[in-house]
Amino acid sequence: MKKKRSPLMHWLSFLPALAYWWLEETQPLEIALSVGLGLVVLEVSLEKILNGHVHSLSKLNFGIILVLGTLALVAKEGILFKLQPTFTGFICGFYLVFNQSRGRVFLVESMKEMGKSWPFPEEWLKDFERHVIAFMFLYGSFMAYWSFLGTTAQWAFWKTGGQYISFGLFMVAEFWWLRRRVKRGVK
Fold it and tell me: Within 10 Å of residue 185's Cβ, how many Cβ atoms?
């Protein structure tokens, strides 16, 4: 039986970005990057301890941060470290595009694996996944903008709380879209 995800993990995921922001402002770049990398290792270790396993997305982010963080240390350039959300969004987006090009819809397969039923036509879930793909590419591009042209404080905001605001607005738009389809009886 899987352990339920600890709510602490949700808030702990903000720690590396916020610590990096504070440290970049107050310490040499090498210290900020080293502590950021250390906190990512701590985050994944705690996820394993508290949940009994590490989620696939956490493993992906861990790998991306380790690679980008190491490159940033070698190049002495913090922007590389800040590109993690961009790479995560693009990799996940391309994975979903690849699945759909093979006739598979990740969300449909996931719902079936979980034994959950989707109360609407499967085509709607496929459309929703296409919208998620667009959101991932747009958000990844948006985060690249803040990585290169914004301050670290602005980047940290959009990587943490701003990400939830963006996704919340996306979901409001999706519910509006779904409601319109239901009212119109579109299949």
Answer: 6
Residue spans of beta strands (DSSP E) within the chain: none
What torsion do the CA atoms of 134, 140, 143, 144 make, to the nearest 10 degrees?
-120
Among 82, 106, 134, give the residue marking a domain's end: 82
Q: Distance between CA 132 and CA 170 in Å, rounded? A: 9
Q: What is the DSSP letter of 150?
A: S
pLDDT tens, residue by residue, 136-175: 999 999 999 999 999 999 999 999 999 999 999 999 999 9
Tally of domains within the chain: 2
- Report CA Rg, the chain: 18
Where a domain ends, among 82, 106, 133? 82
Residues in Cβ contact with 105 at an 8 Å cutoff, skipping those fewer than 6 apart: 99, 122, 125, 126, 129
Question: Which residues form the domain of 52?
Answer: 1-82
- With 0-12 / 13-18 / 19 or more C-beta atoms within 10 angstroms meaning exposed / middle / buried, residue 18 is middle
Who's near 66: CB < 8 A, 6+ residues apart? 37, 40
Spatial separation of the C-alpha atoms in residues 109 and 154, rounded to whole Å? 37
What is the per-residue DSSP string for 124-149? HHHHHHHHHHHHHHHHHHHHHHHHHH
pTM above 0.70, yes or no: yes
